[in-house]
Protein: Early nodulin-like protein 17
Amino acid sequence: MGSRAMVMALMCALVMVMVPQVLGKRYIVGGKFGWTSNVNYTVWASDKHFYKGDWLFFVYDRNQMDVLEVNKTNYESCNTDHPIGNWTTGAGRDVVPLNVTRHRYFVSGKGFCFGGMKLSVRIEKPPPPPRAAPVKSNAPTTCYRSQYVFPLVFAIGAVWDSFLRVTG
Ligand SMILES: *[C@@H]1O[C@H](CO)[C@@H](O)[C@H](O)[C@H]1NC(C)=O
Ligand SMILES: *[C@@H]1O[C@H](CO)[C@@H](O)[C@H](O)[C@H]1NC(C)=O
Ligand SMILES: *[C@@H]1O[C@H](CO)[C@@H](O)[C@H](O)[C@H]1NC(C)=O
Ligand SMILES: *[C@@H]1O[C@H](CO)[C@@H](O)[C@H](O)[C@H]1NC(C)=O
Structure:
């Protein structure tokens, strides 16, 4: 019983450690269109919540566009002379971790910002786990339950065992 409960507890601990890491969501900026002109990224972002721990994935034509992070002023004016971040790796597939809770502004240089290739996201504090993952929260609940159920089953078994021994 001891070792079985121990294995159970270890497995539960493992699940609980791994679940939060799976929770971070990866957004392909622009969805099926990707990072390109003729997409309104304000509209794209409007029905989404971005949480700290999520990721932005920019997929685009590396020969034409790039991914620059700018401040609010330069986002509005499309000034890319002094970006605060250059996420361009050269592959046309750039990943940006949303690891701070504030507004962040991304544009493409090379003139594309003026055509509307600009994205502003508000990164929020992640909601408490039950709201973030109603489905996944089942795992720990099951763990708690089986941690009680297994000893209970063994206890009943032991009592039944001794009962048989006494009467038999
Ligand atoms: C953004 O940076 C520019 C300099 O490139 C500066 O003049 C401006 O005040 C900054 N805006 C904000 C909101 O920090
Ligand atoms: C951004 O970084 C890429 C890759 O290092 C580089 O080729 C490009 O010139 C940089 N762009 C700007 C605007 O600094
Ligand atoms: C966020 O991620 C960037 C890039 O990986 C890193 O340079 C920066 O230090 C991180 N910031 C925080 C607050 O973790
Ligand atoms: C995107 O759509 C919004 C809402 O319809 C509009 O206000 C905004 O000007 C559009 N942005 C661009 C760059 O076209």
